[in-house]
Amino acid sequence: MSDTKKTFIEKVSNCLCPPGNGVFTVNTAKERKEALHQSIYGQTDNIDTLWRDSLEHIESSEYKAVTLGISSDCGGGILRGANWGPLFLRSTLMEQQPNSKTFDLGDVRVIPHLLHDKYLNDGTISNCQKALYQDESSEYHVSPLSITEDVCDDFYANFPNKGIFGIGGDHSISYPLTKSYLKAKRAAGKRTAIIHFDAHTDLLVERLGIDLCFGSWCTHILEFLPAPHHLIQFGIRSSGKDKNHWESTFGVKQHWAHEIREQGAQAIVDGVIAQLKADNVDELYVSFDIDALDATFAAATGTPEYDGMTPDEAMLILNALAKEFPITGADMMEIAPFTDASHSGKQASESTLREGAKISALLIDAMNSTK
Question: Looking at the whole model, is its pTM more than 0.85?
């Protein structure tokens, strides 16, 4: 193993933790965490050692999709709870989609009050380094967005033929995930596009003075795309401004939920495929906010919206894209299992997780099938 890969594994073993452990708790969800560990490792004790030992096998893994959980909802701000997404979605995938497998890198170690290191003073960073790494002068970052970008940058540098499947968490997390992906692909000479499913545009410049959050992350990755219209959005319907405003202001391409219903998903995706081919796009990254789906199917999320896409529409679009282009990176965001604005309780959580797992499995299988 090269020195750079050894350095990467050392970083991961410090900045990450075993799958499902990203939410720091004592007893909460203990049984669910143990069930996940049993499924992954065949036991529930000595998990830290087993996880660290597994990191030596990233390169030799047969899977091109590598899962990274980021259990942070600090960049959200409506209804919180998406920090439980990585644990619950992993469990649902293993139970309901057992044939869709990845190498599991683990979870980012999250201090739940932090977002990005640039918002912190030196004293706070030092205190947090002491808490996370027992070293107040550590070289490692302390905030989830900062840790994620650092780890992903090194991941793509060391394993260019593999891709990250990120599980959030709120949608701010897609900022470091996509930024690292786009930088790596640009360096490799690949033309890329971001396929973004969401009820919301996420094209604010800032929200309440914070520039990196769930409502603004798209704005800040545009500069890393070959062109702004390589950000293609599906399912938009909750916006204070119309489609023309967003497309003319930012140069992105949008397909609102009502257009998909009126024109049909197949017609919409046929047009997108033609656009991508005309732009000579080589690879795709798919970022999926579960609230792209109508709240009838996905109410356990921070900002559920009705009049949205059906799971069948989303699956049709994704299957069509995967047949034409390699999907080499993806994420599933904003599943909040304990949060249900529709007040239908457990049923909403189960439905949201079920649909999220189906779409995640499609994305994982697409990533694993790339050549």
Answer: yes
